[in-house]
């Protein structure tokens, strides 16, 4: 019997889930899309900027930090490519700080790094981003709590109402064992699906390290 790869809505170690987890059982999912999902906005290439996929070239100068390439495929539950899906990413800078008013921890902002990008998957379901490796950051969930380095991913279907959100981590991070968000996923094999693979073929000599990470619908853990 397959184990559900997704974290529970209520995970006591991850304190904020107590504020947003449903108190009652969820209704059975509908079998088909509603009318608003069929008539809502659909994404096209004309809505993307030329540098939306390259987070290192969106400002006048180069951002600080280790340049990386992150690429992979979005696949359905049968391993077929999901073509034309809008993939969005957001992350901290190399010092572990978001460009957000809520993030006020004492780490420097980078004027050349906003930390957000997007692209459409190609005919093989592949996406590709150029960015910098994000830093770990404190998050006050418990004493001396630090989040492992990660990149947030959002995958849209054909409308704004069809959206899945997850996180990608980096191999060998010593903070995995101490992070209640990562550990909220009960299946160890499912947790491993969130960790990217260093890939020498993706790496560009003397320029950027490369990582491969596939998003498989119904198999890659998604945020509750």
From TrEMBL:
<dbReference type="InterPro" id="IPR015889">
    <property type="entry name" value="Intradiol_dOase_core"/>
</dbReference>
<dbReference type="Pfam" id="PF00775">
    <property type="entry name" value="Dioxygenase_C"/>
</dbReference>
<keyword id="KW-0223">Dioxygenase</keyword>
<comment type="similarity">
    <text>Belongs to the intradiol ring-cleavage dioxygenase family.</text>
</comment>
<keyword id="KW-0560">Oxidoreductase</keyword>
<dbReference type="InterPro" id="IPR012785">
    <property type="entry name" value="Protocat_dOase_b"/>
</dbReference>
<dbReference type="InterPro" id="IPR024756">
    <property type="entry name" value="PCDO_beta_N"/>
</dbReference>
<protein>
    <submittedName>
        <fullName>Protocatechuate 3,4-dioxygenase subunit beta</fullName>
        <ecNumber>1.13.11.3</ecNumber>
    </submittedName>
</protein>
<feature type="domain" description="Intradiol ring-cleavage dioxygenases">
    <location>
        <begin position="70"/>
        <end position="98"/>
    </location>
</feature>
<dbReference type="InterPro" id="IPR000627">
    <property type="entry name" value="Intradiol_dOase_C"/>
</dbReference>
<dbReference type="GO" id="GO:0018578">
    <property type="term" value="F:protocatechuate 3,4-dioxygenase activity"/>
</dbReference>
<dbReference type="InterPro" id="IPR050770">
    <property type="entry name" value="Intradiol_RC_Dioxygenase"/>
</dbReference>
<dbReference type="Pfam" id="PF12391">
    <property type="entry name" value="PCDO_beta_N"/>
</dbReference>
